[in-house]
Amino acid sequence: MPALLTTASVLMCPHGGTVQIISSNTRVTAGGDYLALSSDTFMIAGCPFVLPSTQPSPCMQVQWVQTAQECQTMGNFNLTEASVGLCLAATQAPQGTVLINSTQPRVAGQ
């Protein structure tokens, strides 16, 4: 079973920008950090992506397209290390999938 993501999980865009998780979950924790939910806000900072001969088009946010199928917290689906999120530019253009670099190892879900 894949580990659940928390607010302490390390996520990055495919270009090296860092993802900040702004969670609405104030009740359920794993390993001392709040569980990340599909309804949370995932902002990306520091993405250097520039398209050839155009304006900069850095990744700005993550939109989750695959979440945990059976685990929910406060009515929202949890995220696991198997979840799939798309990094989006300010124009909502997909820039690639989010990279999940680390998460807590204690609690898992499907």
Description:
With 110 residues, this protein is mostly beta strands. The chain has one domain (10-99). Helices cover 0% and strands 39% of the residues. The chain is built from no helices and eleven strands. It has strands spanning 10-12, 18-22, 29-30, 33-34, 41-45, 59-66, 72-73, 76-77, 84-89, 94-97, 99-102. The radius of gyration is 14 Å and the shape is elongated.
Low-confidence stretches: none
Please outline the major beta sheet: 3 strands, antiparallel
From the spread of the alpha carbons, the general shape counts as elongated
**Rg from Cα:** 14 Å
Task: Give me a quick take on this structure.
With 110 residues, the protein is mainly β. It contains no helices and 11 strands. The strands form 5 sheets. It has a 3-stranded antiparallel sheet with strand order 6-9-10, with no helix packed on it. Strands 1-11 form a two-stranded antiparallel ribbon. Strands 2-5 form a two-stranded antiparallel ribbon.
